[in-house]
Amino acid sequence: MTKTGKQGVFFVALLLSVVLLAGNGYAGEGLMAADSASSAPWWMWPLLLLVVTFVMGVAAVLGGVGGGVLFVPIISGFFPFHLDFVRGAGLLVALAGALAAGPGLLKMNLASLRLAMPVALIASSFAIIGAMIGLALPTQIVQIALGVTILGICVLMLVAKKSVVPDVPKADNISSVLRIYGVYQEASTGEIIDWKIHRTWQGLVLFIAIGIMAGMFGLGAGWANVPVLNLLMGAPLKISVATSKFLLSITDTSAAWIYLNKGCVIPMMVVPSLIGIMAGSFVGVRLLKVAKPGLVRWIVIGMLGFAGLKALTKGLGF
Amino acid sequence: MPLTRKVKDLLVPIKDYAIVNEDRPLSDAIMALRKVYCQVEIGKCTEAGHRNILVLDSQNKLVGILDFRTMLRVLIPEIAGGVTERLMALGVSAAFAEAGTEELDESLLSFRARVIKNADTKVKQVMLKIRGIIQAEDDLLKALTLMYGNRVTVLPVYKNKELIGVLRESDLFLAVADITTE
Questions:
Q1: How far is CA B135 from the centre of its chain?
Q2: Is B130 exposed, middle or buried (0-12, 13-18, 19+ CB in 10 A)?
Q3: pLDDT value of position A31
Q4: Are B98 and A65 an interchain contact pair (Cβ–Cβ within 8 Å)?
Q5: Residues B33-38, mean pLDDT to the nearest whole number
Q6: What's the domain range around A58?
Q7: Which three-class secondary structure string do you get for chain B?
């Protein structure tokens, strides 16, 4: 294994040990005995969150998953925070990454506004509904649904294919009316790529479900956006990834307002989490430039699956 | 007394200055500036020329300016850019990596490919705004005050409403330096 690969494995192992420490040493006691958690100094939790989210940021970049997808199941599974606060923070974590990337992706002409806007209208409207549903349902039900969703994401990560430039024989009527098409230059080859989409209705209907899940679980939704935009609607992979990230900045903002309005966004949790995950992802990008993630990706998927199972068993009361 | 001279005595005529249209790609601006900066006719860049290029709109009105630093920030944002540009570049890289598509991230491409791609940026997207103009009949002290007050190194020179040239910081430096040699 390369030196950087070893560093990646080290970061993931560190993440695992810290969350397990938090889970065994504090979370368990915190959930069962409030005195134990409250006896810990106040600064311990922000500090622990900062460390865990930093490692999580590195793991997210090396593992090819969104920060929000890792954040919600791991923090809700192993820390003694109520799921509502974790989801509120998770949305802001996903939002921070999207806002950091959005301007650059637009400037590079990779995120397509014409593709993003109709999708964003639907996804963000239903993200608001999803957030309201998530906050209205009993926590255990949400926890079970979160566990199932996380396990589903793991399966999706293992089996989903990607198509760099899908074959779209003919744009459908709705995408033609909305003028959802574009051109971009592939920097590696200099090739000009003309793209258009099809199956727009089906895609928009799926974004109803994606919006609801994004708002309900606070996961971000890149894991679902990209396959729908790329494999179903036929947008090139590069455009799909960029538009998906830009889309998150709209969808997650809508849902985040609901959590904010309900008092589910605690600065003490959000600030260290944002700093940690952003710093971690930037370090991850540096690591990625010198080596392929390889084994780290499998470990991250395994870790995500473990967190999904933990969420499921927690919801089921085991 | 050198500073009793007027702006019109020191200006570089507009015909000698590099200009580019705002709708052209940055690569055109680079070529034009390179041509006036270097003695390309002898094949070597040995003599420093103008370090800025004026940006004109379709009516040939001055709308902006580009300098070396601005162009390098666009060509290699991850190195020459400010904190915002660097964070933006990292954000884009993280976006591709988190989608498991790091191979699509253009910052992982060769330096040469990235520079060529970035040189396609339109001039009007990256040009600097004009901060201050001066009239040909104004004196050099006014030009100095304006230049340092606005923190710029060149001032477009107008004769009434017509752009006739450019006054550079280097010309003003030589004018002030002349005092010490008198």
A1: 21
A2: middle
A3: 36
A4: yes
A5: 80
A6: 3-316
A7: CHHHCEHHHHCEEHHHCCEEECCCEHHHHHHHHHHHHCEHHHCECCCCCCCEEEEECCCCCEEEEEEHHHHHHHHCHHHHCCHHHHHHHHHHHHHHHHCCCHHHCHHHCCHHHHHHHHCCCEHHHHCECCCCCEECCCEHHHHHHHHHHCCCCEEEEEECCEEEEEEEHHHHHHHHHHHHHC
What are the residues facing B64 on neighbouring strands?
Answer: B55
Locus of tokens 């927690």: A314
**Considering only alpha carbons, which residue of chain B is nearest residue A66?**
B98
Mean pLDDT of B26-51: 72
Taking an 8 Å cut-off on Cβ atoms, the answer to whether A288 and B109 are in contact is no
> Is residue A288 scored above 70 in pLDDT?
yes
Taking the CA of residue A89 and the nearest CA in chain B, the distance in Å comes to: 18
Q: Domains in chain B, ordered, with CATH?
A: 2-71+122-181 (3.10.580.10)
Contacts of A269 (CB under 8 A, 6+ apart): A45, A46, A49, A81, A85, A86, A89
**CA atoms of A244 and A239, how far apart (whole Å):** 8
If you average pLDDT over every residue of chain A, what do you get? 84
What is the ipTM for the molecules in this complex?
A: 0.79
CB within 8 Å: B113 and A188? yes
Instruction: Confirm or reject contact between B106 and chain A (CB < 8 A).
Output: yes
Q: What is the pLDDT of residue A30?
A: 39
pLDDT band at B117 (very low <50, low <70, confident <90, very high): confident
Structural Rg of chain B based on CA atoms: 19
Say if residue A190's pLDDT is above 90.
Answer: no
Would you call A285 an interface residue with chain B, using a CB distance cutoff of 8 Å?
A: yes
Inter-chain CB proximity B97 and A61 less than 8 Å: yes
The residue whose two tokens read 């971009």 is: A184
CB contact under 8 A, B94 and A101: yes
**Structural domain count of chain A:** 1
User: pLDDT band for position A25 (50/70/90)?
Assistant: very low
